[in-house]
Amino acid sequence: MGKTVCAPFAYPDRLASHGAVRERITIGHESSGQPVEFDIAELLATRLLVQGNSGSGKSHLLRRLLEESAAMVQQVVVDPEGDFPSLADEFGHVVIDGAAYSAAEIEALARRIREHRASVVLNLEGLEVEQQIRCAAQFLNALFDAPREHWFPALVVVDEAQMFAPSVAGEIAEDTRRMTLSAMTNLMCRGRKRGLAGIVATQRLAKLAKNVAAEASNFLMGRTFLDIDMVRAADLLGMERRQAERIRELERGHFLALGPAITRRPLAVKIGPVKTGNKARSEGLMAMPDTAPEDMASLLTEGLAEDVAKPAPPPPPPPPAPKVEDVVESLSRADEAPTDEAGESAGANEVAARIDAIIAELARDDHVVAQSTGAQYQSFISRCRRERLVGPMPDMPGFRRKFAEAGAGLDDLDDAVRAQILALGANVDDDLLAPFFVIARAAHAGEVAVDEEALAHAYGTSSPGRIRRLLGHLERQGLIVVREEFGGGRTVMVPGLDLVATD
């Protein structure tokens, strides 16, 4: 599948008579026929949550909202099911096939989208679930991290949001879950100052992280049947729980609306028609074929042996780019050392030394340190590929430990001291290794103060509260001993080391 780029589109005229851009759209109608309007300017400041079971009309609602506001504001759609590329035909959205780009290209595309104010659909249909989640997380993070001069207003629609902001850990890797949850939290909690208005749609409120759902001030609740989802929906709408049955009785395409951008009281609305969509899909029942039973049996069984004997169809074309997992496997299983330009083989020791050097360089790069572990590992693999390093590669846990060692500067210590600190950290959780090594090195050196800036950098935070909680957690695990002083200072001791560091 190629990289899809649609032709530029001249937006239809949606200007009011006085020359200003319209700020309100009609999303649907009440039962009385009264139009229900949506204030897009208010939506940019207050965000939206859409909930509805499969078949409730949730995607139809999102499509109506996008179509009606297409000429008013930039739109970015994260589409895991391939439901929205048809917006390109009518409204000129650029369709980005997530399977056709590398992680670095996805991030670069996101930066250009913010710079040029392009309305796009990120189509993730061609990826496996975990790849969809990682791709969307990196894309959203890059939108969020755009330079201040590119903080233009944009609607960011995330369909099937329970995939990208799960309330509990599922079958995906823990580092993937953390990365995507962080991206969604940034979008909904901190995106407003950067011009990003999050619109999240989910089938199950109970499966959506509460801190993501809680940041929305506007709600459109469709039909749902499970009690736990109905209760949460009723709470968000400010309804009494005994009124939650009303949500179960909603017809398809009908939603309960509430929020400063729509209405100040819960209001039932029937969503209006749309222009785009999958017109080939049939809805409802179809007449059964009138073929006689014996003829139908013949159609199913005649020539079955010949059909089975046919040669298998040719394999599908290769993907546009290798997956990171495939690269990791090929690197780890390769048994031939690369040759340099003179044709000489690089020794295994040289390869191992270069791998350690690359990890050390990445650990000194502030941009890489701020990334998730998964993104750091991908950066490491990419560097190895560029330098044609082939041989045994550290797996994810091994990489995390080496990265933590390099970040804390343990490579500069004597072998005996380094071995002692590594032994003390043998049972430390991977995500706590870097700050523990910083504390252990400072304690062994007898420094008068633990460098809290270095500790915060290693832990990936700038919050003093998180640092205090980190120290308390390490102390509860028996890894350190913290003594608070009346003057406000702290003495941190590491069992097994003779010296202490005081701050």
TrEMBL record:
Keyword Nucleotide-binding: yes
Entry GO MF terms: ATP binding
Keyword ATP-binding: yes
Coiled coil: none
Region Disordered: start-end pairs: 307-348
Keywords of the record: ATP-binding, Nucleotide-binding
Pro residues bias spans: 311-322
Occurrences of domain AAA+ ATPase (ranges): 44-234
Protein origin, superkingdom: Bacteria
Alphabetical list of PANTHER family matching this protein: HELICASE MJ1565-RELATED
Listed name of the protein: ATP-binding protein
UniProt lineage: Bacteria, Pseudomonadati, Pseudomonadota, Alphaproteobacteria, Sphingomonadales
